[in-house]
TrEMBL record:
Record's protein name: Protein PBDC1
A GO CC term attached to the entry: cytoplasm
Organism taxonomic ancestry: Eukaryota, Metazoa, Ecdysozoa, Arthropoda, Crustacea
InterPro entries documented for this protein: PBDC1-like_dom_sf, PBDC1_metazoa/fungi, Polysacc_synth_dom
Residue ranges annotated for the Polysaccharide biosynthesis domain, each copy included: 41-164
Amino acid sequence: MPTQAEIFAELGIPGNVVTASGGAGAASGINADELGNDSTMEGMWAMKAMEHAEIHFNLLCAVDPKLLRLTPKDDLIYQEFRKEFSDLSVAKLKEEDLKSPAAKEKWRPFCMKFEKEVEDYSFATLVRIDPFDEYSESNTILVTRIQFFCIEISRNREGQNDSIRGKFKPKPRTKKTKQ
């Protein structure tokens, strides 16, 4: 799972403000390791993950999901996921299947297998709970990128994303301006 320092780095907060070891961060009174599981940090990372979600959903609206490749390693990810989580339903996710203590114990070593295989495997990413609906606050869970790939590759191959193109149209992305 990502450290708080990785979360800050992903959010663009400079390393001299927050460090995992306390280094320069200690001078500013912030030590990422002491923050623990801060829901505020998770929320900030979720905003960053929303951009990824918009792109993903637009792809689902525009391309037949069975033809969509999310990574060069889709086949490997799908095979390993279904070997390890053969009974996990991707049709409608349950938070306890991803975040309960027992689930974390099973997911953690599985995710680590992809540390060198999938770039940014541990970055926070939003996944839809119900694949028949769009991304929304009530229809998302924050997961690691490799969990997202496992779930969405499975949904694409198992037909769970097939109805999206008929129900939704791609939305123009909002451009962010720098101030």
